[in-house]
Specification:
elongated; 2 helices; 62 residues; two-stranded antiparallel sheet
């Protein structure tokens, strides 16, 4: 069973549903594996929990 993991920003339930549908459809088209075989997990991250270049993203994206 293929597994897709997506790490990104916090999203609404509608955006998550759209993302899951599109990731599943694209993976199915590219790999030729049935859509039902895919599992997807979305991990939402606050910009307070991510750093780049020694600084919090929340401080650099104000």
């Amino acid at each position: 069973m293929p597994f897709i993991q997506f790490d990104g920003p916090q999203m609404s339930k509608d955006k998550k549903a759209e993302l899951i549908a599109k990731l599943t459809q694209t993976a199915h088209e590219v790999l030729g594996i049935p859509e039902q075989a895919f599992s997807i997990i979305i991990r939402e991250n606050s910009m307070d929990n991510i750093g780049a270049g020694g600084k919090l993203l929340s401080d650099t994206h104000k």
